Amino acid sequence: MLEGVQRCMLLRVGSAYRTTSTVALQVITGVIPIDLVVEDHRYLHEMGNGQELAIRKAAREKTLNLWQRRWELNEEKGQWTKRLLSDLNHGLGISENAFCVYCGEEDSPEQTMLYCHRWAPYRIASYGELDFQLTAETLVAHMIEDKRQGNTIGNMIRKIIRKEKERRAREN
C-alpha cells in the first residue's frame, strides 16, 4: 500500500508515463524506496531516535547500501534505467557523508525540499497557492488529494531539483 502511494507521488514528481516502473521512478527521482525509509526510521527509533549524527549517518549508509544492492539484483523492472544508472551513488550524486552546502544539515530530499533556507522562496511561493505548509507526513497526501495541489507541489519540487542540479554541475 505504501509503495502505491509513493508511486503516485513519484509519477507526478518525475513527470513520467504511468507505465514507468516504480523501481525506475525511485532511481530517476532519487527517492529511496518507502520500505527502506520505514526500515531506516525503525533503526533510528531503536537507537534512541537517531539524535546523534553518527547514528543518522550509519542508518543512511545502511539504507543506501541496501538500495544499491536491491538495484543491482533487480532483473525484472527498470532495466533501461539500470543500464543508464547502474551505480546509484554515482548516478544520483548520493553520498552518505553529504551535508547541505547552504545550511550544514545532513543532505536529504526532505531537508532540501522542506527545510533548507536556500529553497524557502520556492516553498513560500507554493504555500501562497496551496494555503498550507508542507511536511514530510502530509506531502504525498496533498499531492494525491487534488490535482491542482499535486501540480503546484510537483512544480516546486522540479524547480528546486533543477536549481540544485545546476549548482552541482557548476561545482564539477
Summarize the structure in words:
The protein is mainly alpha-helical and 172 residues long. It folds into 2 domains: 1-96, no CATH class; 99-167, no CATH class. Helices cover 67% and strands 0% of the residues. It contains 10 helices and no strands. The chain has helices at residues 2-13, 22-29, 34-46, 53-73, 79-84, 88-92, 109-115, 120-130, 139-145, 147-171.
Quick tags:
about 0% strand, mainly alpha, about 170 residues, 2 domains
How would you summarize what this structure contains?
The chain is an all-alpha fold and about 170 residues long. The protein contains 10 helices and no strands. The protein has 2 domains: about 1-95, no CATH class; about 100-165, no CATH class.
Layout of secondary structure:
Layout: H1 2-13, H2 22-29, H3 34-46, H4 53-73, H5 79-84, H6 88-92, H7 109-115, H8 120-130, H9 139-145, H10 147-171
Helix pairs in contact: 1-2, 1-9, 3-4, 8-10, 9-10
Output the structural class.
Answer: mainly alpha
Helical fraction: 55-70%
Biggest β-sheet strands, sense, barrel: none
Characterize the quaternary organization of these chains.
single chain
Mean pLDDT comes to: 80
N/C terminus separation: 39 Å
Shape: globular
